[in-house]
Amino acid sequence: DLIPTSGDTAYFDDMKLEIKYFVGPPGPFAELDISGTDTLFHCSGRTTWMLDTADTDDDGLPRWIAKELASHNITDLIVMNDRMWRAEGASGLWTHSTNGATWTDNTLSGSDRYADQLAVTQTIFGFDALWKAVKPNVLAVSTTPSTGGWMYYTIGNSDTDILDLVVEDNILYIVKEDAVFLIGSNGIPRNI
């Protein structure tokens, strides 16, 4: 028989496992410029993947290469100031990387250390600002996220979660389970 029964052992001389498609939990994508080359990254579960255009399969398609395994599930990934920023939810520190292989944990304290979602806008002075959401209803912004300087907002009630941060025309929209908010020109969050 080809299928061994209970307690039997099967041996294979040559075996090739080929995975043609990238399948896994959905997750964020980000494109980072590394030494003048735009490189696509994807996070799925705890794994950060890089699309390696120099390494192709038999069909000429680029391969996804696992670059790093995070300590927690990765909830978001964005690019700001020539580095990727990765959120790992309320139990994992957000991290940053310039190459996708080596990630630096933030060394901040308290709630500054955590993020569920991330987004980037520009200030009126042209500086990038990193926004982070922490469930259920905390939003924070900093132009120097590695060193702190976070300004905090409370978005709506704490009985509904922030689901996503969306930037369109440099306007940040905060998507909650029951409403959409934005930060008004007066700096106060408002329900739209």
Tags for this model:
192 residues; mainly beta; four-stranded antiparallel β-sheet; 16 strands
Please provide a brief summary of the model.
It contains no helices and 16 strands. By secondary structure, it is an all-beta fold.
Report on this model:
The protein is mostly beta strands and 192 residues long. The protein has no helices and 16 strands. The protein has a four-stranded antiparallel β-sheet, with no helix packed on it. Strands 5, 6, 7 and 8 form a four-stranded antiparallel β-sheet that branches. It has a four-stranded antiparallel β-sheet with strand order 9-10-11-12, with no helix packed on it.
